[in-house]
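#lab-general

N.A. 3:47 PM
ok so I finally got the sequence cleaned up, no stray characters, all 180 residues accounted for. can someone with queue access submit it? mine expired

B.Y. 3:52 PM
send it over

N.A. 3:53 PM
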Amino acid sequence: MSEIKIVEAPPGIEGNGFFATSLDKAIGLARSHSLWPLPFATSCCGIEFMATMGSHYDFGRFGSERLSFSPRQADVLMVMGTIAKKMGPVLKQVYLQMAEPRWVMAVGACASSGGIFDTYSVLQGIDEIIPVDVYVPGCPPRPEAILDGFQRIQDLVKNESGRRRHSPEYKELLASYGVQ
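B.Y. 4:20 PM
back already:
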């Protein structure tokens, strides 16, 4: 169902054949180039993201120049920086307010693993409270790394089946995070 097939043209249409594809592929392609990110920046990784949005790196060329600061209008949650344990419930609430389908990108060492802050007050990776799709390494990561992480999100979106979000495995993953 998810592969491109060459089909013979109907009678009366000139040509050797035309391309037909599944609806999943067409929706995935359109969705992957119209993502609206929600930046959740708490420290220095947010500054690097600001550089990524500038004219030199031009984040908008990927179809994402419209940042959404409302979780209800965002597709991609980009968590950048140190997340304190007191901030964890707020981050989870923002994630839950996003509509499905939603993707999460952990940008930088602090969001991915707590970074250099191995203390009682710092969350040792946001994957303790919400599922993460792409990790971007670095302290802080260069704008090129953030762009690469976003392209990986686009690849996930482009190739994801519409049925994945309704699969028992996906529902089990969300249940393991306490997400309905």
